[in-house]
Amino acid sequence: MRAVLMAGGSGTRLRPLTCDLPKPMVPILNRPIAEHIINLLKRHHITEVIATLHYLPDVMRDYFQDGDDFGVEITYSVEEDQPLGTAGCVKNIAELLDDTFIVISGDSITDFDLQAAITFHKQKRSKATLILTRVPNPVEFGVVITDKDYRINRFLEKPSSGEIFSDTVNTGTYILEPEVLDYLPDNEECDFSKDLFPLLLEKEEPMYGYVAEGYWCDVGHLEAYREAQYDSLYRKVKLDFDYQEKSPGVWVGSNTYIDPSAKIETPVIIGNNCRIGPGAIIEGGTVIGDNVTIGAGADLKRPIIWNGAMIGDEAYLAACVIARGTRIDRRAQILEGAVVGPLSTVGEEAQINTGVRVWPSKRIESGAVLNINLIWGSTAHRNLFGQRGVSGLANIDITPEFAVKLGAAYGSTVKQGARVIVSRDQRSVSRMVSRSIIGGLMSVGVHVQNLQSTAIPISRTMAPKLGVAGGIHVRVHPDRPDSILIEFFDEQGINISKAKEKKIEGAYFKEDLRRVGIQEIGNLAYPAGVIDSYRQTFETQLNVEAIRNSSSKIIIDYVYGVSGAILPELLTKFGCDAVVLNASLRQTAVSNPERETLLHQLGQVVEVLQASLGVQVSANGEQLILVDEGGLTIRGEQLTALMVNTIFVSYPRSTVVVPVNASSAVEQIARRHDGKVIRTKANPTALMEASQKNPNVALGGSGETGFIFPQLHPGFDGMFSVAKLLEMITIQERSLAQIRAELPRVYHKSYTLRCPWKVKGALMRHLVEIHPTEHLELIDGVKIINPHNDNWVLILPDAGEPLVHIYANSDDRDWVEQALKDYRHQVQDFIEQEQGELANV
């Protein structure tokens, strides 16, 4: 059997270690990852290897040559012009694969029993067998679901937290029959997980998952790299050690001298031709490469030191990575998680703080304290984007310097000379951040259409009208008054996709920022007539005459946010009496208790003035809470049901889009009016996309997110929601209280409990396994349904916090209370059990 070793990766998340080294050549226990993979293949009698190369191909060819010294036969296939993807590079060598073959990633550490997997593949007569394993947190991997016979029926590449249906993940090792390559195009970039496997699933080709026992670590980022080193050293994975075990847990190479006064704990590896000075302390977990010198009194607490490094007297190294040829001078300190790139010099008594990365061939002066990545900017976070965009504490996480770089990163993902909208709310902190973003955009040759302070629905409306490539809106976070939220939308005004977010993150973290000459710096313009344009669009989607004939009185509470003062102006134009409350600007956001007080006052004003309705507009014009003529609030699930009911009466047989956690009142109302309900993931982007791509959608969203009217623009719009609602209740000759009385009596309750990140995937898999398939919906989280009625329970992992939300829904209050109690105990017991098992590992 032949093996295809995929070794073309550049390992951008491992930089600076991979600046001059392909990812498969990064050392684990002083030998390249690819060498450990070849040893694994050889142990399972697979000795014909075809290595696919792209990034710095000569490094691997020079090291392995024809493979004779390693007991295998290696041939190479180099992707010269552009990477062809995981599947494309294998298709490129299809003529060499005339029998069953194995594809294995060159950047993971594993000791799986490959022969057992091959036997399984043949027994099942599979066309494609994916070797799977279970991991505590599957967010970074491709999740795979199999039936009881291990046939694959679903998989999802790198899911968000809410999409985790299992903790069984794709390890990037596949056993394939050569005919599956016929499904792939020639000389085109394509991927196994994104292109080939979904196609095989669609064609109903036999495709199975083999859940392997043993160790597997995808060495995808620096933390995983250190973890793989330590696991290998502590023999959690079966790897070949190239040095003699001088004493239990101490492996030492040839021609190495260790001073008798040096203190060495186990386990450690010390390579060939090393010198360990007097009084040096080497703690268990330390890996020292070949030709390394350790000075007198040096204190090494589990560092990973590559070949040729020099560590000075009394230097202190703690759980860091020191790349080849680096010199650490006397009394320097390198703290936990720091990485020093190849051929760098760290001066005497200098300090590199936790998590800081130093790119190759840099010099840090004596006595310097380095708190940020050298040359490449501030300390990197793993992810920039959360559920709704980029958010963080104002002027702590979201600083001007961060915003400049973020603007440049986004601008680098669009064409030079493209135009982008930038807008914000009225607060001065948002002005500061938006101006910094504008500077970053202009620095990469992007022209800015600055709408200044305006409501986000207006920005979304203007995106297609101004012909821009996208837009950015900055505001105080609707749910966290001390935080800033930065949202990105595309040329239609829809929040950008996950793929686009990843591109921006890649540009930000890799510092892959475009720089342009002075003559190419972007321009800054202030478009005229923005409010007029929005007003015209607003009016085209309303029956203005109906509103004019209503002679309604409306009370609007802006909660000191000035979410878009266009609304009372428009309503007045339509003949309505609009009374505005709390419209002055406050720089600090209103707290939740204060908001509730204002809502109570709004209800009193509505009653006293005998108004038709009251509305509290928030979230920079996106969200709303209604107050009926009796002063009672309508919000959350009741507001969702009321809006859906009103829409279906006006537009029978239309479609509404709601999140997966909305109550079943929506379906009950739809059945009355022959309407259709589409459920989506519980995030704003999914609601926007579904409202745009599906036909005949009259309404999208919920009382929690706000409402979308796709004919107006693709985002949430609290202002238009009020005007449209007024139009519909006027034509229907009903009041809010009358509509509320007609709504279905559905009990909908939720409970939130803490769930560690590492347990979420196992919890979702457990829930999928213990329920029959016909009782499951896996739109987002795990929804357990009764096919015969509207009873359901939804377990939904939180996308941004270590939490899990449990929702119960039924016409029967007692059923809801009992179901919520039962699942709360089930989930809590499982979390405690998993935490206990993780603690014992």
State the fourth-level CATH superfamily of the largest domain: Spore Coat Polysaccharide Biosynthesis Protein SpsA, Chain A
CATH topology of the largest domain, what is it called? Spore Coat Polysaccharide Biosynthesis Protein SpsA, Chain A
- Under the CATH scheme, the architecture of the largest domain is Alpha-Beta Complex
- CATH class of the largest domain reads Alpha Beta
Report the portion of residues in β strands: 25-35%
Helix amount: 25-40%
Which class do the helix and strand fractions yield?
alpha/beta
Rg is 30 Å
Shape: globular
Total domain modules: 5
What report would you give on this structure?
By secondary structure, this protein is an alpha/beta fold. It folds into five domains: 2-218, Spore Coat Polysaccharide Biosynthesis Protein SpsA, Chain A; 241-370, Hexapeptide repeat proteins (UDP N-Acetylglucosamine Acyltransferase, domain 1), CATH 2.160.10; 390-528, Alpha-D-Glucose-1,6-Bisphosphate, subunit A, domain 3 (Alpha-D-Glucose-1,6-Bisphosphate, Chain A, domain 3), CATH 3.40.120.10; 533-742, Alpha-D-Glucose-1,6-Bisphosphate, subunit A, domain 3 (Alpha-D-Glucose-1,6-Bisphosphate, Chain A, domain 3); 747-840, TATA-Binding Protein, CATH 3.30.310. Helix content is 30%, strand content 26%. The strands form eleven sheets. It has an eight-stranded mixed β-sheet. The chain has a seven-stranded mixed β-sheet with strand order 5-4-1-6-11-8-12. Helix 7 (400-412) packs across helix 8, helix 12 (544-550) crosses helix 18 and helix 15 runs parallel beside helix 16 (665-672). The two termini are 35 Å apart. The relative contact order is 0.06. Residues 375-382 have low confidence and may be disordered.
